DNA sequence: TGACGATGACTGACTAGTCAGTCATAAATG
DNA sequence: CATTTATGACTGACTAGTCAGTCATCGTCA
Protein backbone atom coordinates (compact mmCIF):
# COMPACT_ATOMS: atom_id res chain seq x y z
CA UNK A 1 0.00 0.00 0.00
CA UNK A 2 2.60 2.45 0.93
CA UNK A 3 5.13 3.37 -1.65
CA UNK A 4 8.20 3.10 0.49
CA UNK A 5 9.74 0.93 -2.14
CA UNK A 6 12.27 3.43 -3.34
CA UNK A 7 15.02 3.02 -0.91
CA UNK A 8 14.39 -0.71 -0.64
CA UNK A 9 14.70 -1.21 -4.33
CA UNK A 10 18.03 0.45 -4.34
CA UNK A 11 19.51 -1.34 -1.40
CA UNK A 12 18.13 -4.79 -2.03
CA UNK A 13 18.87 -4.80 -5.69
CA UNK A 14 22.51 -4.55 -4.82
CA UNK A 15 23.04 -8.06 -3.67
CA UNK A 16 26.32 -7.40 -1.91
CA UNK A 17 26.16 -5.04 0.97
CA UNK A 18 29.64 -3.78 1.33
CA UNK A 19 28.96 -0.27 2.43
CA UNK A 20 31.39 1.05 -0.10
CA UNK A 21 29.92 -0.78 -3.04
CA UNK A 22 26.29 -0.26 -2.20
CA UNK A 23 26.56 3.36 -1.21
CA UNK A 24 27.58 5.19 -4.28
CA UNK A 25 28.46 7.82 -1.76
CA UNK A 26 31.18 8.36 0.68
CA UNK A 27 33.39 6.33 2.89
CA UNK A 28 30.47 7.12 5.11
CA UNK A 29 32.41 8.34 8.05
CA UNK A 30 30.39 9.01 11.17
CA UNK A 31 27.06 10.70 11.44
CA UNK A 32 28.30 14.13 12.35
CA UNK A 33 30.71 14.23 9.44
CA UNK A 34 28.03 13.16 7.01
CA UNK A 35 25.71 15.81 8.33
CA UNK A 36 28.35 18.46 7.73
CA UNK A 37 28.92 17.20 4.24
CA UNK A 38 25.23 17.39 3.55
CA UNK A 39 24.99 20.85 4.92
CA UNK A 40 27.81 21.90 2.66
CA UNK A 41 26.08 20.28 -0.30
CA UNK A 42 22.90 22.16 0.48
CA UNK A 43 24.74 25.46 0.77
CA UNK A 44 26.49 24.85 -2.51
CA UNK A 45 23.29 23.88 -4.29
CA UNK A 46 21.30 26.73 -2.82
CA UNK A 47 23.99 29.12 -3.92
CA UNK A 48 23.74 27.98 -7.51
CA UNK A 49 19.98 28.11 -7.57
CA UNK A 50 19.64 31.47 -5.91
CA UNK A 51 22.22 32.98 -8.24
CA UNK A 52 20.54 31.50 -11.27
CA UNK A 53 16.95 32.35 -10.39
CA UNK A 54 16.89 34.89 -7.58
CA UNK A 55 15.32 34.36 -4.20
CA UNK A 56 11.63 34.28 -5.01
CA UNK A 57 11.85 32.09 -8.09
CA UNK A 58 14.06 29.46 -6.51
CA UNK A 59 12.31 26.26 -5.49
CA UNK A 60 13.44 24.36 -2.45
CA UNK A 61 12.67 21.17 -4.34
CA UNK A 62 15.31 22.10 -6.87
CA UNK A 63 17.85 22.88 -4.21
CA UNK A 64 17.14 19.55 -2.59
CA UNK A 65 17.44 17.70 -5.87
CA UNK A 66 20.68 19.41 -6.75
CA UNK A 67 22.11 18.71 -3.32
CA UNK A 68 21.03 15.09 -3.53
CA UNK A 69 18.92 15.39 -0.42
CA UNK A 70 15.26 15.21 0.49
CA UNK A 71 13.45 18.46 0.98
CA UNK A 72 12.86 17.78 4.63
CA UNK A 73 16.58 17.57 5.19
CA UNK A 74 16.97 21.21 4.33
CA UNK A 75 14.74 22.04 7.27
CA UNK A 76 17.05 20.16 9.60
CA UNK A 77 19.72 22.70 8.77
CA UNK A 78 17.80 25.91 8.12
CA UNK A 79 14.72 27.43 9.65
CA UNK A 80 13.05 28.48 6.42
CA UNK A 81 13.78 29.71 2.95
CA UNK A 82 14.35 33.27 4.03
CA UNK A 83 16.76 32.67 6.86
CA UNK A 84 18.45 30.11 4.67
CA UNK A 85 19.17 32.80 2.15
CA UNK A 86 20.49 35.14 4.78
CA UNK A 87 22.71 32.53 6.38
CA UNK A 88 23.92 31.55 2.98
CA UNK A 89 25.31 34.96 2.26
CA UNK A 90 27.14 34.93 5.57
CA UNK A 91 28.49 31.44 5.05
CA UNK A 92 29.88 32.25 1.66
CA UNK A 93 31.18 35.71 2.38
CA UNK A 94 32.85 35.26 5.74
CA UNK A 95 35.73 33.12 4.50
CA UNK A 96 36.34 35.46 1.59
CA UNK A 97 36.57 38.42 3.92
CA UNK A 98 38.79 36.44 6.23
CA UNK A 99 41.14 35.65 3.39
CA UNK A 100 41.27 39.22 2.15
CA UNK A 101 41.74 40.60 5.63
CA UNK A 102 44.89 38.59 5.91
CA UNK A 103 46.49 41.20 3.73
CA UNK A 104 49.98 40.77 2.39
CA UNK A 105 52.80 42.59 4.17
CA UNK A 106 52.78 46.23 3.12
CA UNK A 107 55.87 46.16 0.97
CA UNK A 108 56.57 48.11 -2.17
CA UNK A 109 54.72 51.06 -3.56
CA UNK A 110 51.07 51.74 -2.88
CA UNK A 111 50.37 51.15 -6.53
CA UNK A 112 51.90 47.71 -6.26
CA UNK A 113 49.76 47.00 -3.23
CA UNK A 114 46.61 48.05 -4.95
CA UNK A 115 47.59 46.19 -8.05
CA UNK A 116 48.05 43.06 -6.03
CA UNK A 117 44.63 43.63 -4.56
CA UNK A 118 43.10 44.15 -7.96
CA UNK A 119 44.77 41.04 -9.28
CA UNK A 120 43.29 39.04 -6.45
CA UNK A 121 39.90 40.53 -7.01
CA UNK A 122 40.12 39.74 -10.67
CA UNK A 123 41.01 36.15 -10.06
CA UNK A 124 38.71 35.50 -7.13
CA UNK A 125 35.63 37.55 -7.88
CA UNK A 126 35.17 38.94 -11.37
CA UNK A 127 33.58 36.36 -13.61
CA UNK A 128 33.26 33.78 -10.86
CA UNK A 129 30.45 32.48 -8.73
CA UNK A 130 31.46 35.04 -6.15
CA UNK A 131 30.95 37.81 -8.60
CA UNK A 132 27.45 36.52 -9.19
CA UNK A 133 26.92 36.63 -5.45
CA UNK A 134 27.66 40.31 -5.49
CA UNK A 135 25.08 40.79 -8.20
CA UNK A 136 22.63 38.72 -6.21
CA UNK A 137 23.11 40.97 -3.20
CA UNK A 138 22.55 44.04 -5.31
CA UNK A 139 19.42 42.38 -6.63
CA UNK A 140 17.94 41.17 -3.36
CA UNK A 141 19.42 43.66 -0.96
CA UNK A 142 16.45 46.00 -0.84
CA UNK A 143 14.16 43.11 0.02
CA UNK A 144 16.56 41.69 2.60
CA UNK A 145 17.71 44.50 4.83
CA UNK A 146 19.48 41.94 6.97
CA UNK A 147 21.56 40.91 3.99
CA UNK A 148 22.27 44.46 2.92
CA UNK A 149 23.24 45.39 6.48
CA UNK A 150 25.50 42.43 6.83
CA UNK A 151 27.13 43.06 3.51
CA UNK A 152 27.66 46.69 4.32
CA UNK A 153 29.12 45.95 7.70
CA UNK A 154 31.35 43.06 6.75
CA UNK A 155 32.41 43.91 3.24
CA UNK A 156 31.65 47.42 2.12
CA UNK A 157 32.58 49.45 5.15
CA UNK A 158 35.73 47.44 5.70
CA UNK A 159 36.68 47.60 2.08
CA UNK A 160 36.11 51.33 1.95
CA UNK A 161 38.16 51.83 5.10
CA UNK A 162 41.01 49.72 3.76
CA UNK A 163 41.02 51.57 0.47
CA UNK A 164 40.94 54.89 2.23
CA UNK A 165 43.98 53.86 4.22
CA UNK A 166 45.81 52.90 1.07
CA UNK A 167 44.87 56.12 -0.64
CA UNK A 168 46.05 58.20 2.29
CA UNK A 169 49.31 56.32 2.28
CA UNK A 170 49.64 56.99 -1.42
CA UNK A 171 48.98 60.66 -0.88
CA UNK A 172 51.50 60.82 1.96
CA UNK A 173 54.11 59.17 -0.18
CA UNK A 174 53.40 61.42 -3.10
CA UNK A 175 52.21 58.63 -5.34
CA UNK A 176 48.73 60.06 -5.56
CA UNK A 177 48.09 63.68 -6.49
CA UNK A 178 44.38 64.03 -6.02
CA UNK A 179 43.92 64.53 -2.28
CA UNK A 180 40.14 64.49 -2.44
CA UNK A 181 40.24 60.89 -3.54
CA UNK A 182 40.57 59.84 0.08
CA UNK A 183 37.06 61.10 0.64
CA UNK A 184 35.64 58.79 -1.99
CA UNK A 185 37.40 55.45 -2.02
CA UNK A 186 34.36 54.31 -3.98
CA UNK A 187 35.99 55.87 -7.01
CA UNK A 188 38.91 53.52 -6.62
CA UNK A 189 36.77 50.40 -6.64
CA UNK A 190 34.00 51.53 -8.96
CA UNK A 191 35.48 50.08 -12.15
CA UNK A 192 36.00 46.76 -10.43
CA UNK A 193 32.35 46.66 -9.43
CA UNK A 194 31.31 47.66 -12.91
CA UNK A 195 33.41 44.84 -14.27
CA UNK A 196 31.60 42.36 -12.04
CA UNK A 197 28.22 43.54 -13.23
CA UNK A 198 29.31 43.80 -16.83
CA UNK A 199 30.45 40.20 -16.88
CA UNK A 200 27.06 39.03 -15.65
CA UNK A 201 24.98 41.11 -17.99
CA UNK A 202 26.82 42.12 -21.10
CA UNK A 203 29.78 39.83 -21.54
CA UNK A 204 27.99 38.07 -24.40
CA UNK A 205 27.43 41.35 -26.22
CA UNK A 206 30.76 42.97 -25.62
CA UNK A 207 33.42 41.11 -23.69
CA UNK A 208 35.34 43.32 -21.30
CA UNK A 209 39.02 42.97 -20.57
CA UNK A 210 38.68 43.71 -16.89
CA UNK A 211 42.37 43.42 -16.17
CA UNK A 212 43.31 45.95 -18.79
CA UNK A 213 40.55 48.27 -17.72
CA UNK A 214 41.71 48.21 -14.13
CA UNK A 215 45.24 48.94 -15.27
CA UNK A 216 44.06 51.99 -17.19
CA UNK A 217 42.12 53.12 -14.17
CA UNK A 218 45.16 52.85 -11.95
CA UNK A 219 47.17 54.78 -14.50
CA UNK A 220 44.57 57.47 -14.15
CA UNK A 221 45.05 57.62 -10.42
CA UNK A 222 48.79 57.12 -10.17
CA UNK A 223 49.81 58.59 -13.48
CA UNK A 224 50.92 56.52 -16.43
CA UNK A 225 53.30 53.88 -15.35
CA UNK A 226 56.67 54.75 -16.75
CA UNK A 227 58.37 51.79 -18.32
CA UNK A 228 61.66 53.41 -17.50
CA UNK B 1 -19.96 47.57 -3.22
CA UNK B 2 -17.30 48.65 -5.60
CA UNK B 3 -14.80 51.25 -4.59
CA UNK B 4 -14.39 53.37 -7.67
CA UNK B 5 -12.84 56.15 -5.69
CA UNK B 6 -9.50 55.57 -7.26
CA UNK B 7 -9.39 57.58 -10.43
CA UNK B 8 -10.64 60.72 -8.83
CA UNK B 9 -7.98 63.33 -8.87
CA UNK B 10 -6.96 62.78 -12.42
CA UNK B 11 -8.44 64.74 -15.24
CA UNK B 12 -11.76 65.93 -13.98
CA UNK B 13 -11.13 69.26 -15.60
CA UNK B 14 -12.29 67.86 -18.92
CA UNK B 15 -15.36 69.23 -20.63
CA UNK B 16 -17.86 67.36 -18.56
CA UNK B 17 -21.46 68.35 -19.01
CA UNK B 18 -23.88 65.70 -20.08
CA UNK B 19 -23.25 62.88 -17.67
CA UNK B 20 -25.28 63.21 -14.55
CA UNK B 21 -23.48 64.85 -11.68
CA UNK B 22 -23.81 61.65 -9.78
CA UNK B 23 -20.56 60.48 -11.27
CA UNK B 24 -18.29 62.57 -9.18
CA UNK B 25 -15.58 61.16 -11.33
CA UNK B 26 -14.40 61.59 -14.78
CA UNK B 27 -16.30 63.22 -17.53
CA UNK B 28 -13.75 61.25 -19.42
CA UNK B 29 -12.88 62.04 -22.91
CA UNK B 30 -13.32 59.30 -25.47
CA UNK B 31 -12.66 55.65 -25.08
CA UNK B 32 -9.23 55.69 -26.62
CA UNK B 33 -8.04 58.38 -24.26
CA UNK B 34 -9.34 56.53 -21.23
CA UNK B 35 -7.70 53.38 -22.41
CA UNK B 36 -4.39 55.19 -22.68
CA UNK B 37 -4.77 56.62 -19.21
CA UNK B 38 -5.44 53.22 -17.83
CA UNK B 39 -2.52 51.76 -19.62
CA UNK B 40 -0.33 54.47 -18.20
CA UNK B 41 -1.68 53.83 -14.72
CA UNK B 42 -0.91 50.16 -15.08
CA UNK B 43 2.61 50.86 -16.28
CA UNK B 44 3.19 53.23 -13.40
CA UNK B 45 1.85 50.81 -10.84
CA UNK B 46 3.70 47.85 -12.28
CA UNK B 47 6.89 49.88 -12.20
CA UNK B 48 6.51 50.56 -8.50
CA UNK B 49 5.71 47.00 -7.66
CA UNK B 50 8.45 45.43 -9.75
CA UNK B 51 11.00 47.81 -8.29
CA UNK B 52 9.86 47.14 -4.76
CA UNK B 53 9.58 43.35 -4.98
CA UNK B 54 11.34 42.12 -8.09
CA UNK B 55 9.71 40.25 -10.92
CA UNK B 56 8.88 36.91 -9.35
CA UNK B 57 7.53 38.25 -6.08
CA UNK B 58 5.27 40.86 -7.64
CA UNK B 59 1.58 39.98 -7.70
CA UNK B 60 -0.60 41.09 -10.55
CA UNK B 61 -3.38 41.60 -8.03
CA UNK B 62 -1.26 44.24 -6.35
CA UNK B 63 -0.48 45.97 -9.61
CA UNK B 64 -4.16 46.03 -10.45
CA UNK B 65 -5.12 47.38 -7.08
CA UNK B 66 -2.49 50.08 -7.20
CA UNK B 67 -3.50 51.06 -10.71
CA UNK B 68 -7.14 51.12 -9.72
CA UNK B 69 -8.24 48.57 -12.28
CA UNK B 70 -9.39 44.97 -12.20
CA UNK B 71 -6.89 42.27 -12.83
CA UNK B 72 -8.54 41.29 -16.07
CA UNK B 73 -7.95 44.76 -17.42
CA UNK B 74 -4.23 44.22 -17.31
CA UNK B 75 -4.68 41.40 -19.78
CA UNK B 76 -6.39 43.76 -22.18
CA UNK B 77 -3.11 45.64 -22.41
CA UNK B 78 -0.42 43.01 -21.90
CA UNK B 79 -0.10 39.42 -22.98
CA UNK B 80 1.19 38.08 -19.70
CA UNK B 81 3.33 39.00 -16.74
CA UNK B 82 6.58 38.30 -18.48
CA UNK B 83 6.00 40.31 -21.62
CA UNK B 84 4.50 42.99 -19.46
CA UNK B 85 7.78 43.29 -17.62
CA UNK B 86 9.74 43.43 -20.83
CA UNK B 87 7.49 46.02 -22.41
CA UNK B 88 7.62 48.01 -19.24
CA UNK B 89 11.34 48.44 -19.41
CA UNK B 90 11.03 49.64 -22.98
CA UNK B 91 8.19 52.00 -22.19
CA UNK B 92 10.04 53.63 -19.35
CA UNK B 93 13.48 53.74 -20.87
CA UNK B 94 12.75 54.92 -24.39
CA UNK B 95 11.70 58.44 -23.44
CA UNK B 96 14.68 58.81 -21.13
CA UNK B 97 17.04 57.83 -23.90
CA UNK B 98 15.23 60.13 -26.27
CA UNK B 99 15.67 63.01 -23.89
CA UNK B 100 19.32 62.31 -23.27
CA UNK B 101 20.01 61.79 -26.95
CA UNK B 102 18.80 65.30 -27.60
CA UNK B 103 22.16 66.41 -26.34
CA UNK B 104 22.87 70.05 -25.77
CA UNK B 105 24.87 71.89 -28.42
CA UNK B 106 28.55 71.01 -28.05
CA UNK B 107 29.70 74.29 -26.67
CA UNK B 108 32.40 74.94 -24.14
CA UNK B 109 35.03 72.57 -22.86
CA UNK B 110 34.62 68.82 -22.83
CA UNK B 111 34.69 68.95 -19.08
CA UNK B 112 31.75 71.32 -19.10
CA UNK B 113 29.89 69.00 -21.42
CA UNK B 114 30.48 66.00 -19.26
CA UNK B 115 29.65 67.97 -16.18
CA UNK B 116 26.34 68.95 -17.71
CA UNK B 117 25.74 65.32 -18.46
CA UNK B 118 26.60 64.31 -14.95
CA UNK B 119 24.35 66.99 -13.53
CA UNK B 120 21.48 65.69 -15.58
CA UNK B 121 22.18 62.14 -14.57
CA UNK B 122 22.30 63.20 -10.97
CA UNK B 123 18.99 64.94 -11.14
CA UNK B 124 17.16 62.48 -13.35
CA UNK B 125 18.50 59.12 -12.27
CA UNK B 126 20.47 58.88 -9.06
CA UNK B 127 18.17 58.48 -6.12
CA UNK B 128 15.02 58.46 -8.26
CA UNK B 129 12.65 55.82 -9.44
CA UNK B 130 14.73 55.60 -12.58
CA UNK B 131 17.77 54.73 -10.59
CA UNK B 132 15.84 51.90 -9.06
CA UNK B 133 14.95 50.76 -12.55
CA UNK B 134 18.63 50.43 -13.31
CA UNK B 135 19.06 48.31 -10.23
CA UNK B 136 16.07 46.24 -11.26
CA UNK B 137 17.63 45.57 -14.63
CA UNK B 138 20.86 44.51 -13.02
CA UNK B 139 18.84 42.25 -10.78
CA UNK B 140 16.60 40.63 -13.37
CA UNK B 141 18.79 40.92 -16.43
CA UNK B 142 20.25 37.45 -16.27
CA UNK B 143 16.76 35.95 -16.14
CA UNK B 144 15.44 38.19 -18.91
CA UNK B 145 17.87 38.11 -21.77
CA UNK B 146 15.43 40.16 -23.79
CA UNK B 147 15.62 42.91 -21.20
CA UNK B 148 19.38 42.76 -20.90
CA UNK B 149 19.73 42.82 -24.68
CA UNK B 150 17.42 45.74 -25.04
CA UNK B 151 19.14 47.64 -22.30
CA UNK B 152 22.52 46.97 -23.78
CA UNK B 153 21.43 48.03 -27.24
CA UNK B 154 19.47 51.10 -26.31
CA UNK B 155 21.29 52.43 -23.31
CA UNK B 156 24.66 50.90 -22.64
CA UNK B 157 26.14 50.71 -26.11
CA UNK B 158 24.90 54.18 -26.99
CA UNK B 159 26.08 55.62 -23.73
CA UNK B 160 29.48 54.03 -24.11
CA UNK B 161 29.76 55.31 -27.66
CA UNK B 162 28.77 58.81 -26.66
CA UNK B 163 31.24 58.83 -23.79
CA UNK B 164 33.97 57.54 -26.03
CA UNK B 165 33.30 60.36 -28.44
CA UNK B 166 33.54 62.88 -25.66
CA UNK B 167 36.73 61.35 -24.34
CA UNK B 168 38.34 61.39 -27.76
CA UNK B 169 37.37 64.99 -28.14
CA UNK B 170 38.88 65.73 -24.77
CA UNK B 171 42.10 64.00 -25.77
CA UNK B 172 42.23 65.85 -29.08
CA UNK B 173 41.77 69.13 -27.31
CA UNK B 174 44.37 68.29 -24.73
CA UNK B 175 41.93 68.33 -21.85
CA UNK B 176 42.48 64.68 -21.10
CA UNK B 177 45.93 63.22 -20.70
CA UNK B 178 45.26 59.55 -20.38
CA UNK B 179 44.80 58.35 -23.97
CA UNK B 180 43.87 54.81 -22.98
CA UNK B 181 40.75 56.11 -21.33
CA UNK B 182 39.02 56.14 -24.71
CA UNK B 183 39.25 52.37 -24.70
CA UNK B 184 37.28 52.13 -21.47
CA UNK B 185 34.56 54.74 -21.27
CA UNK B 186 33.16 52.52 -18.52
CA UNK B 187 35.70 54.12 -16.22
CA UNK B 188 34.12 57.48 -16.84
CA UNK B 189 30.65 56.35 -15.83
CA UNK B 190 31.56 53.79 -13.19
CA UNK B 191 31.24 56.13 -10.20
CA UNK B 192 27.84 57.27 -11.43
CA UNK B 193 26.64 53.69 -11.57
CA UNK B 194 28.09 52.99 -8.17
CA UNK B 195 26.23 56.01 -6.84
CA UNK B 196 22.96 54.63 -8.18
CA UNK B 197 23.49 51.30 -6.50
CA UNK B 198 24.79 52.87 -3.32
CA UNK B 199 21.68 54.97 -2.92
CA UNK B 200 19.49 51.88 -3.18
CA UNK B 201 21.45 49.73 -0.83
CA UNK B 202 23.55 51.68 1.60
CA UNK B 203 22.20 55.20 1.76
CA UNK B 204 20.73 54.52 5.17
CA UNK B 205 24.07 53.33 6.53
CA UNK B 206 26.27 55.94 4.95
CA UNK B 207 24.75 58.64 2.82
CA UNK B 208 26.80 59.43 -0.25
CA UNK B 209 27.22 62.89 -1.70
CA UNK B 210 27.03 61.76 -5.29
CA UNK B 211 27.50 65.18 -6.74
CA UNK B 212 30.70 65.80 -4.85
CA UNK B 213 31.99 62.35 -5.66
CA UNK B 214 31.42 62.86 -9.36
CA UNK B 215 33.22 66.19 -9.15
CA UNK B 216 36.23 64.52 -7.56
CA UNK B 217 36.17 61.87 -10.22
CA UNK B 218 36.17 64.44 -13.00
CA UNK B 219 39.04 66.21 -11.28
CA UNK B 220 40.88 62.94 -11.50
CA UNK B 221 40.33 62.73 -15.22
CA UNK B 222 40.73 66.36 -16.21
CA UNK B 223 43.08 67.47 -13.51
CA UNK B 224 41.99 69.63 -10.60
CA UNK B 225 39.70 72.35 -11.79
CA UNK B 226 41.40 75.67 -11.75
CA UNK B 227 39.13 78.28 -10.28
CA UNK B 228 39.91 80.57 -13.18
C1' DT C 1 33.38 -9.71 20.10
C1' DG C 2 28.70 -9.92 18.60
C1' DA C 3 23.92 -8.98 19.36
C1' DC C 4 20.37 -5.66 20.16
C1' DG C 5 17.72 -1.88 21.44
C1' DA C 6 17.93 3.38 21.39
C1' DT C 7 18.78 7.36 18.73
C1' DG C 8 18.03 10.84 15.54
C1' DA C 9 19.24 11.92 10.67
C1' DC C 10 16.71 11.45 6.79
C1' DT C 11 12.78 10.85 3.76
C1' DG C 12 8.87 12.30 0.70
C1' DA C 13 3.87 12.28 0.57
C1' DC C 14 0.88 15.54 2.14
C1' DT C 15 -1.43 20.09 3.64
C1' DA C 16 -2.57 24.60 3.26
C1' DG C 17 -2.01 28.39 0.79
C1' DT C 18 -0.73 31.40 -3.24
C1' DC C 19 -1.20 33.43 -7.65
C1' DA C 20 -1.16 33.74 -12.98
C1' DG C 21 -4.41 33.61 -16.17
C1' DT C 22 -9.55 32.83 -17.76
C1' DC C 23 -14.21 33.86 -18.77
C1' DA C 24 -19.10 34.58 -17.85
C1' DT C 25 -21.25 38.66 -16.70
C1' DA C 26 -21.90 43.59 -16.29
C1' DA C 27 -21.16 48.37 -17.55
C1' DA C 28 -20.26 51.84 -20.85
C1' DT C 29 -20.58 53.60 -25.34
C1' DG C 30 -22.23 55.14 -29.82
C1' DC D 1 -29.76 47.80 -29.11
C1' DA D 2 -25.22 45.97 -30.61
C1' DT D 3 -20.69 46.23 -29.58
C1' DT D 4 -16.77 47.20 -27.12
C1' DT D 5 -14.47 47.36 -22.69
C1' DA D 6 -14.06 46.24 -17.81
C1' DT D 7 -14.73 43.29 -13.91
C1' DG D 8 -13.58 39.95 -10.29
C1' DA D 9 -14.87 35.24 -8.95
C1' DC D 10 -12.93 31.16 -10.19
C1' DT D 11 -9.66 27.46 -11.58
C1' DG D 12 -5.71 24.81 -11.83
C1' DA D 13 -0.92 24.56 -11.33
C1' DC D 14 2.53 25.10 -8.22
C1' DT D 15 5.28 25.29 -3.75
C1' DA D 16 6.82 26.33 1.26
C1' DG D 17 6.73 23.91 5.09
C1' DT D 18 5.27 19.55 8.02
C1' DC D 19 5.53 15.13 10.17
C1' DA D 20 4.82 10.14 10.69
C1' DG D 21 7.63 6.67 9.57
C1' DT D 22 12.29 4.35 8.24
C1' DC D 23 16.79 2.71 8.95
C1' DA D 24 21.91 3.42 9.46
C1' DT D 25 24.70 4.19 13.16
C1' DC D 26 25.98 4.08 17.99
C1' DG D 27 26.30 2.72 22.84
C1' DT D 28 25.81 -1.02 25.89
C1' DC D 29 25.96 -5.36 27.81
C1' DA D 30 26.56 -10.43 27.81
From TrEMBL, chains A, B:
DNA-binding region(s) from the entry: 59-78
GO molecular function: DNA-binding transcription factor activity; transcription cis-regulatory region binding
Gene3D superfamilies per UniProt: Tetracycline Repressor, domain 2
Chain residue ranges for the region called Disordered: 1-29
UniProtKB keywords: DNA-binding, Membrane, Transcription, Transcription regulation, Transmembrane, Transmembrane helix
HTH tetR-type domain: residues covered: 36-96
Domain of life: Bacteria
Segments passing through the bilayer: 187-206
SUPFAM superfamilies: Homeodomain-like, Tetracyclin repressor-like, C-terminal domain
InterPro entries in UniProt: Homeodomain-like_sf (IPR009057), HTH-type_TetR-like_transc_reg (IPR050109), HTH_TetR (IPR001647), Tet_transcr_reg_TetR-rel_C_sf (IPR036271), TetR_C (IPR011075)
Protein name (record): TetR/AcrR family transcriptional regulator
Organism taxonomic ancestry: Bacteria, Pseudomonadati, Pseudomonadota, Alphaproteobacteria, Hyphomicrobiales
